[in-house]
Amino acid sequence: MSININIEKLKKDITSEDILASLFYYAVFGEKISQNDLERFKWHGIYAKDEKQTSFSLKIPLNLGELNLSQLESILNILETFSLLKISFKDGQKIEFDSLNLRDIPEIFNILNKVGLSSFFESSHSIKKVLTCPVNGLDTTQIFDVEDLAKKLNESFVENKNFFNLPNKLQFAISGYREGCDAGFTPDVSFNAFKNSKDKIVFDLKILDKVVAQISSSQIIKTARVIASVYRDFGNREKSNNFKEFIKEFTLDSFCDILSSNLDIKIDNNQEIKILKEPKKPRMGINKSSKDGYSFIGLKSIKKEFAKDDLKNIIENMKKYSATKLKITHKSNIIILDVPSQNSDNLVNSLKNRGLVLE
Question: Can you give the pTM of this predicted structure?
């Protein structure tokens, strides 16, 4: 039976703390979850897998797609402690636990929080974790290392209560390549680095697929804040329109006029800038890192999911060959970031039987 849920009312009626309190209540007392609370739980990555609510999944967006060894070991601990069969790597740089009992989720939250992982606002009408290229600072062909800027964008907006209640989700992306990074879709707002005619590094500001301005790195956070505020204040909440629909309805001209009046930058949505290259795809295979003596290794994930033994083997071999962290790409492949170059071939060979292969 289809149930109409007033999302705007839900967003106004309850806070993040209230959602967590409701989760703990249902986990302890085992009552059937109301439809409104089921919808709210999705905001924190919790999804009922059946109508009887006997099984749940938990999706966790990763900061810049990264997992270090401590985080991987905590994921393995969760699989072992709660008798789970697998961990899935999902598109959009997320991981997912499946077949969970609701009563176990609060303790899983505690384990994740201790290593800096959180599912909060995974699917709400808020600003999503920024999309960026997996090999920032490592790829020698990159124009500019945007890793610190990406972190600042996340720190400024993700879980910021001023931007919890948008008409729909808002996705920023930032790239050290002018063509941007291949996320499999067009982000709402992109900041892409390039060198201008004065050999100075600046950023194209793209609204959807249209370049409307060039800005400096110091202007990115303020520009993003103004864009998010305009969408929050002027977006059509009766339709819960996404950002693309908002721009179409509001018009790009009107949107750019507001940006111009609030920012000390030149906005020109009529400029014709042709970016000839396709978005930059993650570098697969063994690649020389900009960090001397190291390589980064892009591996195709055949199944996109890993059983306990698979994950344990990955962790053991990363330790054996002195690698400490990896990133999940936007299409759920894996890049191991910091492998001593003399160990690269051995690490690749050790992971072949775990569903990770060179393309």
Answer: 0.90
